[in-house]
Design brief:
It contains 38 helices and 11 strands. Helix 16 crosses helix 18, helix 23 crosses helix 25 and helix 25 packs parallel to helix 27. Among the domains are: 180 residues, Rossmann fold (3-Layer(aba) Sandwich), CATH 3.40.50; 120 residues; 71 residues, no CATH class. The chain is 50% helix and 5% strand. The strands form 3 sheets. Strands 5-2-3-4-1-6 form a 6-stranded mixed beta sheet, sandwiched between helices. A 3-stranded antiparallel beta sheet has the order 7-9-8. Strand 8 and strand 9 form a beta hairpin. It is mostly helical and 883 residues long. It is elongated.
């Protein structure tokens, strides 16, 4: 085509670094795992190009899953065919005999490469395209492939979707995989969520096409016919209100350089909460930055932040791999420059998605007018690209058949119809492609039928424009993500969900293989289409049904993956908050019962959702009930909340204060509740925003906020002194009251001159207020605790104290006892006659020195004589003195 797809791809340094480590290490297999459109093929092309250059050039053999055959015993069989085909092509180009090349089997090539110290590298791109029968024998094929790699010294890079690697990667011996720990035990099949033989976790249906009353001539009827009984309870129903072309197979590297031919890319009691005994923090990504596709916490490598356990990163329990997500911010900016994409033309996060960038560049280059006034989304880019491709195909056909003007536009509409029919047919059984006969029926190689307007060259035109590409013995859409997108528009979603999730029994006599998990892409697109076509309520209802299906069967692969994929792909998940709460509550309930939630919904999933912080923290509040004990390895939701707090204290502190009302105990940490966990987080990470924390706490009227402020008065007196000085100057009465309350708490712990100066200033500001202010006694209490101004303010303070001022506590006056014993003792004599005699006695006991003991005893004797009912308080005082 004439698009602008020739821009040089941006180097993704993290992936390049992993490839270099793989080449230098002992592993034999590297999984390059990413969603369609993430640039897997581009990265393989870059790797092959690097290996073909320089003095250390090494042989690279490129294969696709479509090159595999039903009867292959290992990857060596496909490699052997590819090398033989390459030999024939080279021989035909120079008129030689293929036999002149000698032994060019992969075993021989691998032996020569290993002898030269440059191991043969096989690149397997799109293994999902392997024939269904071979996919059914995947364990045996993988075992033989691993044995062949070990015997020959060859290495393998598999570029695939996470859904494929989840199963295929687990079949390789763990020690062969790049990124695995030598001493690491492989996860169990339960941990991997990989069904064992006979496990009923996949639908028996292999055809994803919409059901039709009658099958077209020559084609089997759709197996989506209703029948059987549902294995799940009835679903709740509600009334809803209205980089360049993909390289082909072959050997990369020249004959001179490589010798190859061809070309092609804690137990026990926990510490008190105020000592930080609950939360532990690791580095966490910013919320909402995850790429599409559910992820987990494997060793994840990617250019963009790839959250653990969330879409775009490594999947929990997924075999070791290198994850490929969206471009990083810097890489995306560079890619937009290279492709000529104006800043702001694409909506976030599509502006960092490799395939969206590339297709937008082609559409933008084909337009003569200015860019769209508002950022466009991935769906709009795909729709425009498809229209552009159909127009280019029509233009090519028109040029060959002498058509002009409106005839070209009519022809483009017919091309579009055939493309959509190709998408519908490719939903049928198989791996999502078209066999030769189906392709030829839609895009004739020779004369086209009259309904297509006659003419010739349909098949060459769609292939030349890059809309379709050969795939083994058939054809497929050139871009896998575009294929998922257009197929999703033709999927009978209700029937698909009934078969895949809600699981009707297979009609009697039907013997089919399960739907491969990597075919999930078109189902996800069909679910996402609901919101665009029918509105948010319809999508919310469908997601709610998936949550109920997951509640009924927590091991449902399709329900869990569809929920995770769809929710993390939404540009704004806020309208689906109730669905998320339903999901979170179910996870928490199962966690409280000791059941493990699907690993797909670990902490990374919740940070990848595009949600406001308020909603995210409310969901985490529900999810902390599902956390394991602190000593158990792996991410916890409480750690996620801690990470968000560290990243943005000002935003998260007030949200954590809202947890104070939740007194539910944490099942894994029975001594703690959700509320005390929030206290622990705020205390542990207080230094990230101490002044802001004091403001958030004083805004709250909750007793736990007051408890935490009391602890901060002891441990962070400087911060509390600053806060008291601010609150004293605040005109709001509640703030001034807080200044007195927390100033009196902090004063005994103020050790520096700066701290005492702040408290003194605060007290003077309060004292300068209205003469009838009830806070004047509190201000005087602060001043008499400061030796620098005690003499001046003590007489007035003692008058307030003797009169029973509630804001002038006995402890504040007792601080002046060593320096002014006579007036202080006289004031205490008056106070002992009041209602708080017990508190006055206790404070007097704490402040009495041996030199004052006799005078205090005489004072107490007089007080008991005057008020015999204080004898009980006196007994308590004597008991304290005897301790």
């Amino acid at each position: 085509g004439s698009g602008s797809g020739a821009a040089e791809p941006v180097e993704r340094t993290a992936v390049t670094r992993e490839f270099a480590a793989f080449a230098a290490g002992r592993a034999r297999v590297l999984g390059l795992v990413g969603a369609p459109g993430s640039g897997r093929t581009t990265e393989l092309a870059a790797l092959a190009a690097r290996r073909s250059r320089g003095p250390d050039a090494a042989p690279t053999l490129w294969l696709r899953g479509a090159d595999l055959r039903d009867d292959d015993r290992s990857l060596a069989d496909a490699a052997r065919r590819t090398l033989a085909r390459a030999a024939r092509i080279v021989a035909a180009s120079d008129g030689s005999d293929p036999g002149d090349f000698g032994d060019i089997t992969p075993d021989r090539l691998a032996h020569l490469a290993r002898t030269a110290g440059r191991p043969l590298l096989l690149l397997l791109d799109g293994p999902e395209e392997m024939p269904p029968a071979l996919a059914h024998r995947l364990p045996e094929w993988t075992e033989d492939t691993a044995a062949w790699l070990g015997a020959t010294g060859a290495r393998l890079v598999v570029a695939c979707r996470a859904e494929y690697w989840e199963h295929a990667g687990a079949e390789f011996p763990r020690e062969l995989l790049h990124g695995s720990d030598p001493g690491e035990a492989p996860p169990s099949r339960a941990a991997l969520a990989v069904p064992g033989p006979g496990a009923d976790v996949s639908s028996p249906w292999t055809d994803l096409r919409p059901a039709r009353p009658q099958a077209p001539a020559g084609r089997a009827p759709s197996p989506w016919a209703p029948g059987g009984t549902s294995g799940a309870p009835p679903r709740p129903r509600r009334t809803v209100a209205p980089a360049g072309p993909h390289p082909g197979s072959g050997v990369v590297g020249s004959v001179e350089e490589t010798g190859a031919v061809g070309s092609g890319p804690a137990s026990g009691g926990a510490a008190p909460w105020w000592r930080g005994g609950i939360g532990r923090v690791g580095p966490l990504p910013a919320p909402g930055t995850g790429a599409a596709g559910p992820l987990d916490a494997t060793e994840a490598v990617g250019s963009a932040p790839v959250p653990a356990d969330t879409p775009g990163g490594g999947r929990v329990g997924l075999p070791p791999c290198v994850r490929l997500g969206d471009l990083s911010d810097e890489e995306a900016r560079e890619a937009r420059v290279r492709h000529g994409v104006p800043e702001g033309a694409l909506a976030d996060p599509d502006a960092a998605h490799p395939l969206t960038l590339r297709l937008f560049a082609e559409v933008h280059a084909a337009l003569s007018g200015p860019p769209a006034p508002a950022p466009v989304t991935r769906d709009e880019v795909f729709a425009a690209y498809l229209d552009l491709m159909c127009l280019r195909v029509a233009t090519r056909l028109a040029g060959e058949n002498g058509l002009h003007g409106t005839a070209v536009r009519r022809l483009a509409a017919k091309v579009s119809g055939q493309v959509h029919e190709a998408a519908r047919r490719s939903l049928g059984s198989g791996q999502g492609g078209l066999d030769r006969d189906s392709f030829a029926a839609l895009f004739p190689w020779g004369p086209a039928p009259a309904r297509l307007g006659g003419g010739t060259g349909w098949a060459p035109a769609v292939l030349a424009e890059g809309l379709f590409a050969p795939a083994g013995s058939g054809y497929r859409f050139a871009h896998e993500e575009l294929a998922d997108w257009i197929q999703g528009t033709h999927l009978d979603l209700e029937e698909a969900l009934r078969a895949l999730v809600h699981r009707r029994d297979t009609p009697h006599g039907t013997h089919t293989l399960p739907v491969p998990h990597h075919r999930i892409g078109s189902v996800v697109e069909a679910v996402l289409l609901l919101a665009r076509q029918h509105g948010v309520p319809q999508l919310a209802l469908t997601l709610e049904e998936l949550v109920h299906a997951l509640d009924f069967d927590p091991h449902s692969w399709w329900a869990a993956r569809l929920l995770a994929e769809v929710l993390t792909r939404l540009p704004d998940a806020t309208p689906y908050t109730e669905v998320l709460r339903l999901l979170a509550d179910g996870i928490a309930e199962r966690g409280g019962e000791g059941q493990h939630a699907p690993q797909l919904f670990g902490p990374g999933f919740w940070t990848a959702l595009r949600l406001p912080g308020t909603t995210r923290l409310d969901l985490l509040r529900r999810l902390v009930l599902a956390d394991g004990p602190p000593h158990r390895p792996g991410p916890r939701h409480l750690d996620t909340a801690a990470g968000l707090l560290v990243a943005d204290p000002a935003a998260v502190q007030p949200l954590l204060v809202r947890w104070f009302d939740d007194e539910r105990p944490l099942p894994a940490t029975p001594h703690a509740t959700v509320a005390t966990a929030a206290q622990a987080l705020l205390h542990t990470h207080r230094h990230r925003g101490l002044d802001g924390l004091t403001e958030v706490l004083v805004d709250s009227t909750h007793r736990r906020a007051d408890e935490l402020l009391a602890v901060l008065a002891e441990e962070e007196p400087s911060a509390l002194c600053r806060a008291v000085e601010r609150w004293a100057r605040d005109e709001r009465p509640a703030r001034q009251t807080a200044a007195v309350t927390h100033g009196l708490r902090t004063a005994p712990h103020a050790r520096t001159g700066a701290d005492r100066t702040l408290l003194r200033h605060a007290a003077l500001v309060l004292l300068a207020g209205p003469s009838d202010s009830p806070l004047r006694g509190g201000a005087l209490a602060l001043l008499i605790q400061d030796p620098a101004c005690r003499d001046r303010h003590l007489p007035r303070a003692l008058d307030h104290f003797a009169a029973g001022d509630p804001y002038l506590p006995p402890g504040a006056v007792a601080a002046a006892l060593p320096t002014h014993p006579e007036p202080v003792l006289e004031a205490f004599r008056a106070r002992l006659l009041g209602p708080d005699a017990g508190e006055a006695l206790r404070r007097l006991a704490d402040a009495t020195t041996p030199a004052l003991a006799d005078r205090v005893a005489a004072l107490l004797g007089r007080a008991v004589a005057e008020r015999p009912e204080t004898a009980g308080h006196l007994a308590a005082y004597v008991d304290r003195r005897l301790e």
